[in-house]
């Protein structure tokens, strides 16, 4: 039986993440199906073309792989994307003041295990004690402004003893970055605690 996820709208990131996971555990056919599903939602998704190329390369079909890699490179406009265009943010969650924070979704297997773009998670910052995913688009320079107009920050400040501490929060920002060929790349992220590639 196939482990490919059911189609859920145009949640291309979910198909990319699931395809990458399946590829890592040696399920090439199911991984291909996920990447094809992502391309059905967005045929201009360079990351899906590159992932599909890597599956064919691992399966011993380098000529087909090169075709997929070439399409990824064409879509990106070079060897790699300069920045991530769409960020999917899960949060906000409260933080501790003096300690390093843990993964707010650790109870569900961590950020790698939760489906991007769907689901709600407990947080006292959200309506009815729950928050979900918000998508933010980067500007031309790659900068992203994280804001939550649906959260009543004034009410939160009034309701807590440590008034301004409530304005400090944490969350996960997830995005897809494409490198169309093997190489050494520099990843630079300002204003964040942890980066996982």
What does this structure look like?
The chain is α+β, with helices and mostly antiparallel strands. The protein has two domains: 65 residues, Serine Threonine Protein Phosphatase 5, Tetratricopeptide repeat; 89 residues, no CATH class. A three-stranded antiparallel beta sheet has the order 4-1-5, with no helix packed on it. Strands 2-3 form a two-stranded antiparallel ribbon. A hairpin with a 7-residue loop joins strand 2 and strand 3. Helix 1 packs antiparallel against helix 2, helix 1 packs parallel to helix 3 and helix 3 packs antiparallel against helix 4. It is elongated, with a radius of gyration of 19 Å. The N terminus is likely disordered.
């Amino acid at each position: 039986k196939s482990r490919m996820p059911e189609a859920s709208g145009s949640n291309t990131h979910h198909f990319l993440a699931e395809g990458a996971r399946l590829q890592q555990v040696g399920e090439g056919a199911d991984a291909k199906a996920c990447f094809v599903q992502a391309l059905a939602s967005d045929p201009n998704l360079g990351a899906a073309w590159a992932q599909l190329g890597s599956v064919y390369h691992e399966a011993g079909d380098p000529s087909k792989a090169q075709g997929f890699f070439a399409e990824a490179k064409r879509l990106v406009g070079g060897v790699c994307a300069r920045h991530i265009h769409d960020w999917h943010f899960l949060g906000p969650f409260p933080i501790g003041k003096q300690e390093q924070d843990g993964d707010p979704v650790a109870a569900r297997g961590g950020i790698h295990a939760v489906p991007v773009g769907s689901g709600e998670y407990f947080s006292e910052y959200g309506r009815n004690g729950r928050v979900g995913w918000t998508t933010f688009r980067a500007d031309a320079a790659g900068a992203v402004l994280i804001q939550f107009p649906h959260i009543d920050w004034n009410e939160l400040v009034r309701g807590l003893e440590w008034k301004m501490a409530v304005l400090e929060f944490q969350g996960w920002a997830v995005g897809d970055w494409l490198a169309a060929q093997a190489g050494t790349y520099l990843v630079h992220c300002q204003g964040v605690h942890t980066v996982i590639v």
